[in-house]
Amino acid sequence: MVAADMDSLESLRLRTPHGTVPLGFVRQFGFVYLIARARSAQWPVELLRTGRAELVIREENAVGTAELITVRDDREKILGLFRAKYGPEAFSRWYENPARVIRVDLDRGSPTPSVGESRGTSAYYSWLTAEFDNVADDYDRHITGNRINLLLRNRSLAVLERRFANARRILEIGCGSGMETLPLLEAGHEVTAVDISGRMLDTVRHKAERAGVSERLTTRELAARNLPTMAEDGGAGPFDAAFSTFGALNCEPDLAPIPGALYRLLKPDAPFVTAVYNRWCLFELMGYSLTFQPGRAFGRVHNPVPVGASRFCVDVFAHSVGDFERLFRAGFRRERLEAVPIVLPPSDLVQYADRFERHFDLLAAWDARLGRRWPLNRFGDHFLITFVRRS
């Protein structure tokens, strides 16, 4: 959290592409610790995207490797250091219940890339993994506490349950906390759940154990872009169906390897259902244009969508329906397309939907009907599309 009123203590400034940001900090044993209270803050995203921190501490320059701290005990120890340094009153005001706790290793000037990866690629996926690990324990509340997020999940689950009725083995790419995984397991399907976050996979396994359906669940820690390695594993497929909704594909800078891998993993005529962050959202185009905010109206044009132009706190990549169909055209044909939602607002504007709480179910029903009609089905916040693997 920015701590501009703490200049009487030690000063630290973080250099970003948009200027310097003054921050409170703790320094210990070659590490600098920073805290971001708001998930929507821009500076942590810019810092963690590259994994490289440029600091000015007591007017001296310092460079280090930045990483997100996700282990609860480690976070509590760091918070204790901030409480001791700044005192209970300032700690309660600025640092309690933070969205992110960040460690900067001043002994390392830049992150070391993995074999076969560029520095930027390695840092990006390390950051993405840490971000989802960081929110795993609270992810269900993020979905169920927002009526639009919950509507999105209910829409996709309705399509999955109907279209996958005869599928025995299902592949899920980006399972998150298992909002759709568990209902499919409870319906008798076998699900192989893939996710970049080990903490998310732990959550899904624990849920499956409590529900008594863990024998039908297989998990694999894997980024969506690494799906080709799964396709090369002879024991992985073939699957009767696959899906990826509201998550993993939205975070991939390059989707080119995924259609071919899915083609190899799926049986002929098997469905693939995905919900994708849409480049053209009618609600935003109209609403922000009418309020003279063109930057927000067309904020999804640039990839990744800039922080502040989207509601997400990680990099997201928006796609048009046409671009997505062309990507999958060689191995798949489109079976179904709907906008989710089209009349109702995106989840970050849920307060507008809350004003019509008494009539929300009626509005949701109309939204579902209109979202399946051309051309509105191409202009939702997300588009929910069903492909079928060609023979």
What attributes characterize this protein structure?
391 residues; alpha/beta; Pnp Oxidase, Chain A; Rossmann fold; 2 domains; 7-stranded antiparallel beta sheet; 7-stranded mixed beta sheet; 14 strands; 37% helix; globular; disordered N terminus
Describe this structure in words.
Helix 9 (257-265) links the parallel strand 11 (241-245) and strand 12. With 391 residues, the protein is of the alpha/beta class. The protein has a seven-stranded antiparallel β-sheet with strand order 2-1-5-6-7-4-3. A seven-stranded mixed β-sheet has the order 10-9-8-11-12-14-13, with helices on both faces. The protein has helices at residues 42-50, 72-94, 119-135, 139-144, 147-163, 181-186, 198-211, 227-231, 257-265, 282-290, 294-297, 321-328, 350-354, 360-371; strands at 12-16, 19-23, 26-28, 31-36, 52-57, 60-68, 100-105, 169-173, 190-195, 217-221, 241-245, 271-277, 332-340, 382-389. Helix content is 37%, strand content 22%. The protein has 14 helices and 14 strands. It has two domains: 4-111, Pnp Oxidase, Chain A (Roll); 139-389, Vaccinia Virus protein VP39 (Rossmann fold, 3-Layer(aba) Sandwich), CATH 3.40.50. It starts with 11 loop residues before the first strand and ends with a strand. The longest helix is centred in the first third of the chain and has 23 residues, at 72-94. Mean pLDDT is 88; it is low at 1-8 and 111-119.
